[in-house]
Amino acid sequence: MLSLQTGLAFFSVAVLLALSPGPDNVFVLVHAAQHGVRAGVLVVLGLCTGLLFHTAAVALGLAALLAASPLAFGVLKGVGALYLLWLAWLSWRAPTGLLEGQAADGLSARQTYARGIVMNATNPKVAIFFLAFLPQFVDPALGPVQWQIVQLGACFGLATLLVFGSIAALAGRFGQRLRESTHAQQVLNRAAALVFAGLALRLVWLG
User: Fold this and answer.
1) How far apart are CA 189 and CA 58, in angstroms?
2) Where are the alpha helices (DSSP H) in 4-144?
3) Reduced to 3 states, what is the DSSP secondary structure of residue 73?
């Protein structure tokens, strides 16, 4: 069981990390501005679910295997980049003049949630980051290491939910005015496409 002091220290660091600019919070900002607060929050929930996947990978030792295999790491990066390019294509081709609350790409709530999961789970750098970051707050004297890793992952997910949820709310409300204009919708969709394509290139060349 984590101590209260360790939990608070870890949560504070997690909040700061969530606030720092990165692919995930940019993804949330763009998606919420493009499709609204509800869609943004669903993506955030998906991203947080993806964090649980990475937490389990660290607890079970899978992340260490991924870090040791350049081939597996490269394949996962390639899948993530292709997924982002696909999102860029959907955004570029997205129609305008839709009803309020209707997603430009026709996604249901479940599909929007799944989009966040895929976005996070296919980013191998998150797994490697968790592998390097979480064990620093683990104390074997306090109990099973795997259980402490799970607690830390849940704490990180909570910090992410609060920070990214706030980003989704603000971006979604700001984007509402833009979505009221057909021309602004088109500009927003094209900008989102460029952001997604940029994230794909970043994942491949800067990873």
Assistant:
1) 36
2) 4-19, 23-35, 37-60, 62-68, 70-93, 109-121, 124-133
3) helix
Cα(152)–Cα(142) distance, rounded to whole angstroms?
Answer: 13
Contact at 8 Å (CB) between 40 and 178?
no
pLDDT band for position 180 (50/70/90)? low
CA separation (Å) from 30 to 36, 64, 151? 10, 32, 30
Query: Is residue 98 very low, low, confident or very high in pLDDT (cuts 50, 70, 90)?
Result: very low
Average pLDDT over residues 75-95: 75
Cβ-based neighbour number of residue 105 at 10 Å: 18
Average pLDDT over the chain reads 80
**Residue given tokens 């929930």 in the structure block:** 45
Q: Give how far Cα 3 sits from Cα of 131, 146, 162, Å.
A: 20, 15, 22
93: number of Cβ within 10 Å: 11
Handedness of CA 99, 171, 192, 89 (dihedral sign): negative
End-to-end CA distance of the chain: 34
- Asked if 30 contacts 195 with a C-beta cutoff of 8 angstroms, the reply is yes
Nearest C-alpha neighbor of 87 from the set 41, 19, 26 = 26
pLDDT band at 121 (very low <50, low <70, confident <90, very high): confident
Per-domain residue ranges for the chain?
4-17+41-205
Angstrom distance (rounded) from CA 61 to CA 83: 26
